[in-house]
Amino acid sequence: MGTNAFHSQQKWNLGFIVFLTLLLVLLAQISTNLTLIFVLGISLGFVLQKSRFCLVSALRDPILIGMTELTRAFLLLLGISILGFALVSWGASQRNIPLILNVFPLGVHTVVGGLLFGIGMVLAGGCSTGILMRIGEGFAMQGVAFFGLVVGAVLGERSLITWRNLFGEWSGIFLPDLLGWVPTLILEIAVLVTLWQLAKWWQKKQLGE
Amino acid sequence: MARFTIEIWGEMCPIPLIKAKNKLLSMECGDILVLETEHSCTSRGIVVWAKANRYLIEEEEVANGIWHLELTKTHD
Q: Which of B21, B62, B65 sits opposite A1 (nearest CB)?
């Protein structure tokens, strides 16, 4: 096969750029917040697609093929988010802006739901962002997976109260409230570094350097 | 220097890699395994995996969204 097997996608690219620009201009008239969220969403999608970041393979590959490259990328992501979040809450407290924290109660249903989602994402070949990204790339099968994701999310949201009452739950813990910000950061980063070293050791052991 | 092919067209992410791994076990040193996939993550994943395992790998995008891989088994 030569280069003639390639179809130029320039027309599509141009079309989508024009469409996105017009949509952004339109959104900017309505709300700045929406525009910013939309720009963030588009950029996130772009980075996800180009970087091939895949949460499924980050969690699956160490066990299946003994590779931990993406697992370590995931740990790095967590570390950066923790530092970023600390910065945001520090900035908010300096300016006396109250933060709405999503600290959720934990129970057996959390573990059961996590397991169900885990099985589903390995079968579907993508977590929620991965599925969205692959629909964008043109995979039809992920369209089916997306349908399943929506059905599951709606069912889960509707029946959450039942599971909470059935299994019981412990209230969520927000570590900085218990330990203070600095010890929490040190503890969390230390845990991540340990996991990083563990992942490195695991790959060396599995692939035999 | 035999050439082998396995059918991984349309397979989701971990399956092509597992199939390739199993096929490699039955191959001699110097044999080449030819793979073709339409799944970009699969192609990327196999290349990274092959490099980590010190196999020779050549990746070429032969058409929009179709990757042709040639993996040489350099050691047991």
A: B62
